[in-house]
TrEMBL record:
Pfam families for this protein: Cation_ATPase_N (PF00690)
Organism: Infirmifilum lucidum
Gene3D superfamilies: Calcium-transporting ATPase, cytoplasmic transduction domain A, Calcium-transporting ATPase, transmembrane domain
Name of the protein in question: Cation-transporting P-type ATPase N-terminal domain-containing protein
Residues annotated as domain Cation-transporting P-type ATPase N-terminal: 12-84
TM annotation in the entry: none
Length: 132
């Protein structure tokens, strides 16, 4: 973005007149010219949001971080230290099962959201040189 352009929150535009908003956005009632569109596209790039993809392994390992996993980890360690090896193995198994099921559930939810995003059609009406 242009560093000289002031940063405004979306909410601020509600209280502005149309003329003030157009002035801040450096636009006009007839829209932007093709030259201005090309200049802004070259200057700031396309108007899109890039989604951050996280490594699936990192997502899985995050399932071991939190109050319930900590409790299960401490229980497994204490069981092992006190010689209750069967209980320790069971706790580790439950810990892995909990993390795996949580990860699979989150993964299927993300796939459903991605499928919905693909079905959504983003459309916008713009004015270019008074034609829109």
């Amino acid at each position: 973005m242009d560093s000289s352009a002031p940063a405004y929150r979306t909410l601020d535009f509600e209280s502005l007149s149309i003329e003030e908003a157009l002035n801040i956005l450096r636009s006009s009632p007839s829209g932007l010219s093709e030259e201005e569109v090309a200049r802004r596209l070259a200057e700031v790039g396309p108007n899109e949001v890039v989604e951050k993809k996280e490594n699936p392994l990192v997502e899985y390992l995050k399932r071991y971080w939190g109050p319930l996993p900590w409790l299960m980890e401490v229980t497994a360690i204490l069981s092992y230290v006190t010689g209750r090896y069967i209980e320790a193995i069971i706790m580790v198994g439950l810990l892995v099962l909990n993390a795996s099921l949580g990860h699979l559930h989150a993964r299927s939810s993300k796939k459903a959201v991605e499928a919905l995003k693909k079905r959504l059609s983003i459309r916008v009406s713009v004015l270019r040189g008074g034609v829109g």
